[in-house]
Structures are given as structure tokens and as C-alpha cells.
Amino acid sequence: MNKTVLLEVKDKIGYITINRPEALNALSSQVLKDLNEVLDTVEASQEIQVVIVTGAGEKSFVAGADIKEMDTMTPTEAFEYMTYANDTFSKLANLRQPSIAAINGYALGGGMELALSTDIRLGHEKILLGFPEVTLGIIPGFAGTQRMSRLIGASKAKELILTARNVKADEALSLGIINHLVPVDQLLEEAEKLAKSILKNAPLAVEKAKHVITVGVELPLQHAIRLETEAEALLFSTEDKVEGMRAFVEKRKAVFNKK
Ligand code: CAA
């Protein structure tokens, strides 16, 4: 059987591809399990410094949780399925490395929620985003109610979730759901450009900046600022900080070694 989630590593970028194109990359239990394992590999990798998440095929990023599998689930099984998916998506959100979603088509329900668990989202002109859950008699269950509200505000998130209205690329951009809208044939290239503009910076500083923002936005401001101050002080113990500042003084390009 083909792997439902692929991981390829090239030039410090980890490419995660949800690989179930025959079902528009819907998130079956098997996909979630494979994604969970891939994320463990990424977290432990010393080589991967940025992650790009995308969907296999031309049509779909991810068309949601697997409706055919959910069709026969008991409430207990649904609880386990949602909990496992949320643990997996939180693993992605809290990954040491920054992550970029290259949204290449439908990002519906669980697909939207997967994209919301990455740090930066790019989409092309033909994407379609939304939360169809209430048309199925359920609600977004992979943290969409929470992550979308935190991203665009509760009122706009409520409008999208309660109406189940799909959003095209230009509206997704103006709502701030995607960071950039790019031409269809340049999606991966633009995601790689963005990844490379992160890769040129000090890797430990990048990791700390991500961590402080991800954790800090959930904390009271004074605690979050303290977290930032402690992370900053820790970075003063790194060789890359010495190199970064010395390179500035010597008017040359810094060479970082992740130390
Ligand atoms: N689950 C399971 N199978 C899915 C699927 C999903 N979410 N989305 C698509 N598929 C399957 C279809 O059943 C079909 O399989 P068969 O060929 O075996 O019939 C195959 O993928 C191709 O799909 P379509 O023929 O429907 O393709 P289309 O181009 O006509 O339509 C679409 C595309 C509009 C995305 C349509 O497939 C669709 O509406 N999909 C469901 C989208 C959805 O409701 N997502 C939310 C799921 S609920 C959720 O995610 C809950 C949560 O938060 C936990």
C-alpha cells in the first residue's frame, strides 16, 4: 500500500505531502497516524529546518476529515478520532521548525484545520477554503472553531462556520487566512522562496521566535514578555549570536552553524 503521508528532505526543507489523491487527501485514521509519525521524524531531525505541507494531486490540499469513516463512528470512536487528530495537529503547530502550508486546492473542514495548524499559509488563485461541517450535522472538530477565531476574530470565524460558506482565494487573502496569494504554477516555488528566506537566518533564533509567539499569544502579556526575555537571554549563549553580531560589525554575511 502507498504511504498516505510522504516526507522528502531537500536543502534543509522537509516536504510533507498528504498522499491520498483518490479521496482528495481526506484525513482517514491511517493518514492521521502516518502524519503523526512523520511529525515525530521532523521534530527529531537535525537536518530539517523548515517544513512545507501540501496535498498530492492537482485538485486538493485536503478535503476534510474522512466522511465515509465518520459515517459509522460511535460517539466514543468520534471522541478518539478527534482527540488523536487534535494531538497530531497540535504537534504540527508546536513543531520546533517553522511550517508553511502550500494550499493547492480544496482546504475544507479538517483540511482548513490542518492549514491553520501551520505557521504561514500560501494559496493559489484556484483554492477553495471553508468549513462544511454544519451541513453534515457536526462542527469543526480538529480545532477549527478555536484556531480560526484566534486568527481572524470570533465574529468572522462564526460567519464562516455557521453559514458553511466557501471562500475563494482573494477573500481568504483579505481575511488574513492566507498570507500570500500566488499564481497556480508557482505555488511550490513561492513556498520554497519563503522557506529559503527563513533558512538564511540563525536557526536557533528562528526556532525560539516561533516558540515564543506560539506559546506567548495564549499567555497574559506580562508572562509572554517574560518568556520572550528569557528566550532572548538564552540566545546570548549561542555561537550564532556571536557570529551574527560579529558579521554585522565586520560588514560581511553571517555563517550560522546552529550552535
Ligand atoms: N471524506 C471522504 N471522502 C472524500 C472526502 C471526504 N472529506 N472528500 C472527497 N472524498 C472522496 C469522494 O467521496 C470521492 O470518492 P469516490 O470516487 O470513491 O466517490 C473522491 O473523494 C472524489 O470526490 P468528488 O467526486 O466528490 O469530487 P468533486 O470534485 O466532485 O467534489 C468536493 C469535490 C467539493 C471537495 C467534494 O468531494 C466534497 O464536498 N467533499 C467533502 C468536503 C467536506 O465536507 N469536508 C469536511 C468534512 S467534515 C470535517 O472535516 C470534520 C472535522 O473537522 C473533524
UniProtKB/TrEMBL annotation:
The processes (GO biological process) annotated in the record are: fatty acid beta-oxidation
Keyword Isomerase present in the record's keywords: the answer is yes
Q: Name one GO molecular function term.
A: isomerase activity
What Pfam families does UniProt report for this protein, alphabetically?
Answer: ECH_1
Q: Does the keyword Lyase apply?
A: yes
| Keywords attached to this entry | Isomerase, Lyase
Among PANTHER family, the record links this protein to: ENOYL-COA HYDRATASE, MITOCHONDRIAL (PTHR11941:SF54), ENOYL-COA HYDRATASE-RELATED (PTHR11941)
Family as reported in the entry's similarity comment: Belongs to the enoyl-CoA hydratase/isomerase family.
What name appears for this protein in its UniProt entry? Enoyl-CoA hydratase/isomerase family protein
User: Organism classification, top ranks?
Assistant: Bacteria, Bacillati, Bacillota, Bacilli, Lactobacillales
